[in-house]
Amino acid sequence: MKYVTYLHPTDGPRAGFLHGANVVDLERSAKWMAQGSGPEFGMLPSSLLRFLELGPAAQERARQIAAASGLENQGFWLPLDQVKLLPPLPLPRSFRDFYAFEEHVKTARGRRGLEMVPQWYKFPVFYFSNHNAIHGPDEEVERPAYTSWLDYELEIACVIGKEGRSIPREEALDHIAGFTILNDWSARDVQREEVTVGLGPAKGKDFATSIGPYLLTPDELEDVRDGERWSLAMTARVNGKELSRGNFADIWFSFAELIARASDGVTLYPGDLIGSGTVGTGCILELGEDVHRWLEPGDLVELEIERLGTLRSRITKPKVHK
Question: For residues 255 and 275, is the Cβ–Cβ distance under 8 A?
Fold first, then answer.
């Protein structure tokens, strides 16, 4: 299924799922199902985070709704072109971003005259970013006034759907509610200075992260799955020109390994967001300014991942904030 958070014309942000070129409201469709099946069918919430917290039983109810006939005749069925999609999770519980594609790490370090760090191969590493600065599809992203080296990063992310602590690798994939596209925007000039201190990144990353357009459940990807990996083409375009191309299958550390590492001695909760890190060729830093300049106001950045859709963002000038 493709879960979304959408802006209802009168009722604000609400959880739903895509049904062809339409959005079906989760809460209202569950009430409709209960009228025919009885109150034992169970209700669903209007928040996608709350929906994930209800676990597998709620997700099974959503699948039953999607398979029901007569959905298109109800008031909770809205054409997709008449609603605005928000980030699938407008406010994740947390956001950890890993560094899991070897090609990206090697190339980006090489451009700075650095060798690979041997410890990188020992275990996957991540940093915490700002889960309060999440942007959605077709949402403008402001270039901070403190940077002139704005960069995109082409990533895939998973959202945790089941609570767990010290999750074994062999059980980790069962904790994934779904996958989405992630753009880890980066102020490269600021980041370059921050990391020399031995801590960070901080202001080089915390101003914005874009996700969307929807959260795709893993069962939709079984035909392209090979063990712990999925073969999904990943591309990035700036102003219509393709700059980046890679594949999710090339990830060095699988999401099973990322989840096992993130949960070691720590509890993961439904709604936690986990990024893969940048795919090979997936940013300007890696490609070099001879391929493309840093991003400027007016640029349109499009990240596309097979089966996961396209995440579009327009860069704007810094605004004056009070």
Answer: no
What are 134's strand-pairing partners?
Answer: 209
Closest CA to 7 of 96, 82, 61, 106: 82
Is 26 in a helix, a strand, or coil? helix
56 shares a domain with 194: no
- Cα distance between residue 27 and residue 228, in whole Å: 33
pLDDT one-digit tens code per residue, 188-204: 999 999 988 988 799 99
209 bridge partner residues: 134
Amino acid 156 reads I
Give yes or no: residues 73 and 218 share one domain. no
Q: How many helices (H) and strands (E) does the chain have?
A: 8, 23
**Which token pair is 251?**
């990830």
Claim to verify: residue 101 and residue 207 sit in the same structural domain: yes
Give the residue from 98, 86, 95, 93 showing the smallest Cα distance to 214. Answer: 86
Q: Where are the alpha helices (H) located in the chain, listed in sequence order?
A: 26-37, 48-53, 56-67, 102-110, 169-172, 188-195, 255-262, 284-287
Distances in whole angstroms, Cα of residue 72 to Cα of each of 7, 23, 31, 65, 196: 19, 10, 15, 12, 56
Tell me how far apart the alpha carbons of residues 194 and 201 are, in angstroms, rounded to a whole number: 6
Write the single-letter amino acid at 3.
Y
pLDDT tens-digit map of 33-83: 888 776 667 899 999 999 999 999 999 999 999 999 888 888 899 999 999
Of 262, 254, 303, 251, residue with least CA distance to 94: 262
